[in-house]
Amino acid sequence: MRSPKDFFKPLAVGAPAPLREIPVRPSRMIHFFPASNEKMRSKLPDLAPKVDVLLANLEDGVPATDKDAARAGLVEVANTVDFGDTQFWTRVNSLDSPWGLDDLTAAVLDCGEALDVVMVPKVEGPEDIHYVDRLLAQLEAKAGRSKPVLVHAILETARGVANVEEICLASPRMQGLSLGPADLAANRRMKTTRVGGGHPDYVVRADAVPDDPDGLRVTSQQDLWHYTIARMVDACVTAGILPYYGPFGDIADGVACEDQFRNAYLLGCVGAWSLHPSQIDIAKRVFSPRPADVAHALRVIEAMGDGTGAIMLDGKMEDDASCKQCQVVVALAEELAARDPELAASYGW
Length: 349
Ligand code: GLV
Ligand code: MG
Known about the structure:
By secondary structure, the protein is an alpha/beta fold. The chain has 2 domains: 24-287, Phosphoenolpyruvate-binding domains (TIM Barrel), CATH 3.20.20.60; 293-346, no CATH class. The protein is 42% helix and 15% strand. It has 14 helices and 12 strands. The protein has helices at residues 38-42, 44-47, 67-80, 100-109, 126-143, 158-162, 164-168, 181-188, 226-239, 254-267, 277-287, 291-303, 320-337, 341-346; strands at residues 29-34, 53-57, 87-91, 117-120, 150-155, 174-179, 203-205, 219-221, 242-244, 272-274, 310-313, 316-319. The strands form 3 sheets. The protein has an 8-stranded parallel sheet. It has a two-stranded antiparallel sheet with strand order 7-8. Helix 12 crosses helix 13. Residues 60, 121, 154, 156, 180-183, 195, 246-247 line the site of glyoxylic acid (GLV).
């Protein structure tokens, strides 16, 4: 038993009070950099104003021999880079790895107040979040942090997907979830060999025509990630936290990356990971409402007056529900435009 009132009590004496609402800040792209790489670190002051989130990656992609250097790189960046309005996150190693504990400890004890969010990979159930929650509270109390570090979980095991609602609701620290299609594919024993995106063999095929059984039958490639993203979005919205698409590994295929990101955007995700500078602009384009969509949404809202009833506009029925969808688009556009003057200008604001 636990009183609901206790949910918002600090989990350690001296730790900051948990937040009641997740701060919703633009996060169209979570830009990954390998924290062990000095050359990459030197580019961060120039990169910071161009992205919504900068993430120091300590986990997969960083060789075992560089794990200590990556952790030291995280600390150096946290203490030297001016992030301005850009959020600063880190992805720590998994909780069962030899490095996870030292990563979490350094993220809180040695990074001052710079760090906004810790991304925890391979989260399988609420017990993982409870562990991190208490540990972070103890570390925050020790460090004298004034605001709590938030937690973002990667959904990348079948058990994690099965427990997604419980994960989202496990702590007031939960900020959001990302889909981790590469690890999830491996864990599910899917037969793909790539990092996110579709697969040419995952198709539906038109029926054969009886008169021409050997004739061409059109196929259409399907989205391998539709089910998981939709589940993730519902779980996140239920908990009042934010869903993100994760990585798209085929850096050279910007078109397919844009399609995958846009499917996630349309289904309700607020952003995706960028693994290469070329994906920053793709994410910015996809996760910012198009000027034409914003103009249309504003027209519907205006025509709907107090937002109730039904009207005809350009031959289409608009009602309370379509008006609410338009309000979602306009609210997102306003939030992003407040931080992105170029985008604001494209809306004519
Ligand atoms: C990301 O971490 C993934 O496994 O896709
Ligand atoms: Mg992974």
